[in-house]
Amino acid sequence: MGIINKLSDELVSKIAAGEVIERPASIVKELMENAIDAGATTINIELKNGGIDLIRIEDNGQGMLSEDARLAVQRHTTSKLHTENELYDISTLGFRGEALYSIGVISELEIVTRHKREDTGTIIHVRGGDVVNTSKTAHDAGTTVTVSNLFFNTPVRKKFLGSAQSEYRACLDVIDRFVFGYKNAGIRVMNNGKEVFTIQPAPLEARTILRIDQGLKNKLYDVSFDNGIIKVDGYISDPDYTTNSSRLMYVFVNGRYIMDKSLNFSITNAYSTALQKGRYPVAVINLFLPHNFVDVNINPTKTAVKFADKSMVYDAIRNAIRDSINKRAIVYASPDPGMDKNRFKEEIKESVESYRTSFLHGSTTSTGYGTSKKTRIFSTPYGAKPGVSMNSAADDQQTIIQKGEFSALDIHAQFNATYIVASSPDSMVLIDQHAMHERILFEQLLKNSRVRQRQSQFLTVPQEIFLNENRTSVLADVQDTLRTIGYELTTGRNSVTVRAIPAGTVFSPLSLIELIDNSMRTDGTSHTELTADQKTDPLYRIMADVACKSAARAGDFLPVEKIRALFGQLDQLGIPLNCPHGRPFVFLLPKAEIEKFFHRR
Amino acid sequence: MEFTIDKRILLIEVSKVIGATERKATMPILSNILLKAEKGTLKITGTDLEVTIISIINCNIVSEGQVSIPAKKFYDYIRELPDRDINIKKEDGFIEISTEKISGRLKVLQAEDFPHIDEYKGSYTKVSYEQLLKMIDKTIYATSIDEVKYSLNGVYIEKALDSLRCVATDSHRLALYEDESLKSIEGLTKGIIVPRKGLYEIKKIGTENEINIAVEKNKNLIVNIGNTIIQIRLLDYDFPDYKSVLPSETTINIKIKKDILVSAVKRAQSIYQEKISRVVLDIQKDTIIVESNEPDIGEVKEEIEIDYKGNPLKIGFNGKYLLDCLNSMDGEFVSMGFNNEQSASTFFADDNKKHMNLIMPMRM
Q: N or C: which end of chain A has fewer CB atoms below 10 A?
């Protein structure tokens, strides 16, 4: 007898379900996608024990027709895809027809739904993949899905679940993706009967501040770019607001949350030296491009994409962000200038209340939120109405230095022979002289290195490095760029021969491999956007060191004439206000803050 | 242990030995020197385990014994003593250094902890000190200072047909020098790599005309200069196959006055802001144009007349490599050989095939 068995249908289903459903957060994701695809404007999420005991997701979308509902819980059924051609032009989040079925296989699933065209709703009970009960019921238009007894028939998977806390956090992570990806959807989250947060349709900036950190107020720059094919919009944080993980970088492609190292890389790359090593900005970036330019059918969890033209996408992101950073070249001083914290909290509370009221009272049209007078904080552009303190336009103008304004500063003193004390009409300005000078010198070196071709030194004995296939194929894409940096390479089948290296550097096979790996994407393909000012460029580091060593040091006396000259140079460079190693060099104390401190306000 | 010695003599010998001691203090005992009084002589030893220097001097030994003391402090103290005989005596845990009314005490470490040094007992080859220094000077600048490429951190010495050959390279350029007055070194059976630090110590010590050298079991180079022995641990790596790099012939050959070229290169180099300075040689019929260009600063162009009728070539070099090479050469002229703007170029002092430099170009 042979040893190969045909697996039972039941086992096949469980295996397939496992690909889609790993943990409660996966269910939350699938169900929220369904809600969004159904056009929901409010989504109510209820968890028990971090979703292990219960997940209930209630939406006000279009709902399902009774006959559709019955079909929906079967495998490979979907309303979102009809022909093969549509697979390459996907505009909905879901399309594989696996989610509901998969959830049903490994849990007890209850679906209550009413299509807006039908009078009565449908209730379906599924257990372990089998429909156990179907009946009619009364229900608001929309769908409520309840998942309980998760993994009751796959005990191993259940064993591998994390603690209720960690599953809860994973669910919140997923929910946040929708908070940032769908600013027109109101979202309410409950865990163990307590409200976690409620956020209603509101501008992205407000959502970001509310969900990530109130300290981000005035530290978010809007990003926008549109070349007719790709549209980029979103928010990024000021280079001085960073975190130590890339977790707060959210990238959406046509509304779909995407986890992609090289997309993240093109964001940090745009910051260039404004970021310290190992620091990441907060970013919420929405990319919109024609559906046939992107393939989302890479894996069942749909967090990976392939682009028809990768470099165009990366360039768009980088340019958009770079513009945003350079255009502003702004520094905000104190953590929350001019902000009345209590007032801000009140406003949020108010708006939450109003949202809850409207939600609970069944006002479910999409315009039902954000129009109430009380909710203006989330429904109008910030600062447009008097009395809204958050991000008020008037305050902004007082607390920034625009590019080109340094020359106009009044110079008062040098403190500790390290800091320059200056002022504008609206604020006091402290500048770290070394870091400022370092940045100026660095920019000049960088400019020079762009003007002339990179110096490249041939080796007496060409060095052969062995590369695996991934690296070889990436190398083919980046070879031209490496050449501009100063490498001369001859590629073999599984190796590369290095004939010349950037002059002034020491050849190390590892640094070249690192360069190659940095341009490798998680899916093995590469991007060709290595740039001359990238951090991995060996000369780049050298330039930063040269700048650091040649710059005026802390402790050097600087006469006013020299300070003024430095300010003049600073104004001519479109630069971030950090030293090349990422330290900020300007500190601003707005007049308003000073007045507040002395109780004049 | 107790002995009496002229302070001036002691200071000179300590200053020779101190070069071998470890400055980074990874092992405290290596920042010490060992004083050993025995049979009418004082033996002073310093080592960082790579380079060991031993000096032996006659002196008046009162009682035999040995002691390990911090080299730098010992040196600093005796340097300030008056120029006359001083008495050094070991007590419990320190030595007392005294002369008339002056006396000082220095704490000592256990002499037993000082590394044991096997002394070379074999025979030597007698060589001219000046010749040896010349071999070092004509190659050492081309060694690599990158500590990752161990095999390039020293000068490679091997037997050539009827001479001794030294080669050094940092993978961008190569210097080769042969000395016919020297056929071989006692104990030299295959090529050895002598680390840079040891070579510098050889340069620092002694004024003698003749010295003795030997290779011990392919492990150490022993250099005996007067009363001092330098023992250098050889680098146990394979030196790259340098012969394959040497071009068998060059199609463009130019002879030029060395001083004129040196001055031109220096002028070309002067306008660069950074260390890497590309100096371009634009070789044409009857002239060679030495030029450089630094955006934002300016450019330099200089014509030198040469006797050349062949094909033109424009080739760039790191100006520092050119100067290092030219400055190491004896004679009035330098012969340069090129093939193309990407391949190795050769430089010979006059027409002396025994002294050659190879420089890899920079990309144009």
A: N
Distance CA B308, CA B255 (A): 9
Say whether pLDDT at A242 is over 50. Answer: yes
Asked whether B111 and B95 are in contact (CB, 8 A), the reply is no
**Distance between CA A74 and CA A97 in Å, rounded?**
8
Contacts of A508 in chain B (CB under 8 A): 148
3-state secondary structure of A338: coil
Question: Nearest-CA residue of chain B relative to A542?
Answer: B274
- DSSP structure string for B287-349: EEEEEEEETTTEEEEEEEE----S--EEEEEEHHHHHHHHHT--SSEEEEEES-TTS-EEEEE
Question: What is the interface pTM, i.e. ipTM, of the complex?
Answer: 0.75
The answer to whether B129 and B206 have CB atoms below 8 angstroms apart is: yes
For residue B139, give the DSSP letter: T
Give the Cα separation of B61 and B35 in Å (integer).
12
Q: How far apart are CA A201 and CA A211, in angstroms?
A: 13
Helix (H) / strand (E) containing A597: helix A591-597
- Average pLDDT value for residue range A481-505: 83
Q: Which three-class secondary structure state does DSSP give residue A109?
A: strand
| Average pLDDT estimate for A29-39 | 87
Mean pLDDT of chain B: 91
A-interface mutation test, from B143, B363, B364, most A Cβ less than 10 A away:
B363
- Rounded CA-CA distance B345/B262 in Å is 17
d(CA A103, CA A155): 15
Nearest alpha-carbon partner for A588 in A209, A243, A324, A330: A330
Provide φ and ψ at B309, rounded to 5°. Answer: -120, 0
Q: For A387-446, how does the pLDDT look when each residue is reduced to its tens digit (9 = 90+)?
A: 223 333 333 333 456 667 888 889 998 888 899 999 988 888 899 999 888 888 888 777
Q: What is the dihedral of CA B95, B98, B102, B106, to 10 degrees?
A: -10
Sign of CA dihedral A532, A535, A536, A541: positive
Query: Largest alpha-carbon pair distance within chain A?
Result: 94
Can you read off the two tokens belonging to residue A89?
């032009």
What's the rounded Cα separation, in Å, for the pair A539 and A441?
A: 15
Q: Return residues 306-345 of B near A (CB < 8 Å).
A: 318, 342-344
C-alpha–C-alpha distance, residues A364 and A41, integer Å = 8
Report the C-alpha gap between A442 and A455 in whole angstroms.
18
Q: Which candidate from A451, A460, A503 shows the least CB-CB separation from B362?
A: A503
CA-to-CA distance for A285 and A180, rounded, in angstroms? Answer: 9
Decide if B148 and A488 are in contact by the 8 Å CB cutoff: no
With CB atoms and an 8 Å threshold, state whether B363 touches A460.
Answer: no
- Ramachandran class of A417: left when φ > 0, alpha when ψ lies in -120 to 50, beta otherwise: left
Q: Which of A159, A241, A162 is CA-nearest to residue A208?
A: A241
pLDDT digits (tens, 9 = 90+) for A548-579: 777 888 888 888 888 888 888 888 776 566 67
Residue of A nearest to B170 (CA): A460
pTM of the model: 0.56
Inter-axis angle of helices B258-269 and B319-327, to 10 degrees?
150
Size of the A and B interface in Cβ pairs below 8 Å: 64
- CA–CA distance, A205 with A212 (Å, rounded to integer): 10
Q: And the tokens for B92?
A: 């419990």
Residue stretches of chain B with pLDDT short of 50: none
Measure Cα distances from B118 to A31, A423, B68 in Å.
79, 72, 17
The answer to whether A354 and A372 have CB atoms below 8 angstroms apart is: yes
- Quick one: CA torsion of A167, A172, A177, A182, rounded to 10 degrees? 130
